[in-house]
Every structure is written in structure tokens, then in C-alpha cells.
Amino acid sequence: MRRLLFTGLALAAGTLLLSLAAGELLTRPARARIGPPPAGLQAEVVHMAYGDGRQVSGWFLPGRAGEGAVLLLHGVRGNRLQMLARARWLQQEGIASLLVDLPSHGESSGDRITFGRREALGAQAALAWLRQHSPGEKIGAIGVSLGGAALLFADRQPELDALVLESVYPTITDAVQDRLAMRLGGAGVWVAPLLLMQIPLRLEFGVQDLRPIAAMPGVRAPLLVASGTEDLHTRWPETEQLFAAAPEPKALWAVQGAAHVDLHDYDTAAYRARLLPWLQSHLRKPPG
């Protein structure tokens, strides 16, 4: 009996220590040296201030007058390079774009990854810069996973003329449980509270502050929600719930067979065929 008790205590202590280590890794900044734009890329290096003396770094790719401009926001532990293929494509179509490193990613400032909440400050700064430097243009945004959550939490997202959300989690509870279920099966439900309880300790706000779905009713821009049907990080029923919470006008795109991957890379031709006419319909100025 004593041996069983000691074994149980050891397992509990081990699980707690592993969850603490996982919490540290999940919120640790993902900084990287990006350097100058690739050779031959028509791009401007930009830096935008946010918060208390912090900055967001990125590249601006100009387009043609009247075609609009798009803010591109990457996923968790990524950086602007994740969105470079989209930016090149948009520029070829005449659409300007601003791709940035979200706070605590790439070359941008930040102490912790906060799953969209403080990254929203970087998104707000980038949107303000893009609007200032694209006078007269309609403004859109594409946010992938973390980037989409940051857009939903940003104060300035209602000013957008078009919004694309790709593979965005509805609540942090769903996100944690889904990821643990992938690794631990049914036991993930029991481990999830050990990670969730660390959020107020590490990030100084609560689980209730990480619910992108709660921001969906406030979306005023035409909306396109996309996700993979085989995504286990954000399951398809959760994407449907996120979509259902948004007002019209809106559209839902189920990317057949895709997991939690870069949807542009997964099927580039389908991605471009789906998004280009949709973006142009909302961002392009009518002739005359």
C-alpha cells in the first residue's frame, strides 16, 4: 500500500513538473534573426512602435493603386517568412501587403507568447501603419492561427474591409485539450487543467481572456473562415462554431484533407483560386 502511495505521488509530481516545463516552453518567445528582404524582392523594411517602447518589425511590399493592401500575420512560433509566399503572390496581383513578426516572435519585441492577447497590440500597430501608408486604399488582413486570434483581439479590426481567418482556435481551453488529446489520448482531459492554471501566473490574465470566439460577433468586415478538415489542433466542429458566431457577410472554406498546416502551401492553386477573387471583390476600387 505504501509503495502504491509513493508511486502515485511520484507520478503526480512528475506530471506537475512536466506541465510546468511545457508551460514555460509554450510561452517562451520565439525570436529569430530574419535579416534583410530576399534579393530581388521589392520590399521596404519597417518598424512600428507598440506598447511601452516596444516595436514590431516587418516588410512592406507595395502594390498598384486601387488594388488594396493586406496585413499578413503568421502562426505561433513562426515569423514573417511564413507569409512571404502570400506576399509575393499578392504583389504579383497588384495588392500591397505588410508582413510582420508578431510580438515575441522573429525580430519583434516581447517577453511571452500570449496566444493572441498581447500579440493584438502588434496587430493594431501594423494596421495603423498600413492605413497611414496606404492612403485611399481598402485594407484587408489574413491571420493564420495565432495571427487570426491577434486580429480578433485587436481594437482596430472592425475598420477592415476584408478579413481572412485561417485555422483559428475558438477558446484556449479547446486549443489545449485538442493538443493534449493528440499526444495523450483521453488522459489529455485530465492534464489540461495543469496547463490552463498557469495562464494567469505566467501571463497576468485569465483563461476567459483567451476566447477568440467571443470577439466574432463584433466582426464588421466581410469574413472568410478557412481550416483543414483533418486539423486536430483546431477540429472542424470548432471551426464551424467559430464561423457560426460571426455576423454576415461571411463565407466558410473547408480545405479537404488538410491538417493544421499552411493552407497556402498545402494546395497553392486552390488557395489562390479561392482567395483572389474574394479579396479583389472587397479591396479593389471600381474603375472611375
UniProtKB/TrEMBL annotation:
Mind listing the UniProt keywords for this protein, alphabetically? Hydrolase
Q: Which residues form a coiled coil?
A: none
Instruction: State a single Gene Ontology molecular function.
Output: hydrolase activity
The record's listing under InterPro entries reads: AB_hydrolase_1, AB_hydrolase_fold, DNA-binding_regulatory
The organism sits in which domain of life? Bacteria
Instruction: Name one matching Pfam family.
Output: Abhydrolase_6
Residues in AB hydrolase-1 domain copies: 70-268
Q: What is this protein called?
A: Dienelactone hydrolase
Organism, as annotated:
Pelomonas aquatica
